[in-house]
């Protein structure tokens, strides 16, 4: 399977959000990656349902929504209503993770679980067959434009081995500091989806940058 590219909307120009969404529509990116932050689970606040609904109104590709929030269970249906097709929660934020995964699927979305840089891959062993996506954070969550943590490549290898060992169909996604210098190593290690924010939107030609990542 060819790897997917999911530009992170957090890095787009919010004064021209429709323009940037339509630009991604016209290119070869596969998903829109949307980071939701609550100022509690991570030390930053991004945006809520009104902005997400505005993105969904113009987006012609799936919305891959990454919740960096406490108590995500109470908002699952709201994110479905706002247009999420994939909903990823953090292992560190979910006391009853199986229940959360089941609720996401019951709402009609694909379910993902993310782990922070310090969290070992082994915590996903008991859910790997239940989820559609596993997200390796390659920076500490909360802010865009951070430096890539190289240990993420090794974690991708570990996760790929776990997925094959258990016969899971989960995709491996990597989020944080992804660029042309590390994308090839991540794909070689087993990554299926690369999230790229500032590397795409701060480039002179975002769609050409996406094409370069797709060609690796």
From TrEMBL:
Binds 1 divalent metal cation per subunit. It is an enzyme of class 5 (isomerase). Its cofactor is Co(2+); Zn(2+); Fe(2+); Mn(2+). It catalyses: D-ribulose 5-phosphate = D-xylulose 5-phosphate. SUPFAM superfamilies: Ribulose-phoshate binding barrel. Transmembrane segments: none annotated. This is Ribulose-phosphate 3-epimerase. The gene is rpe.
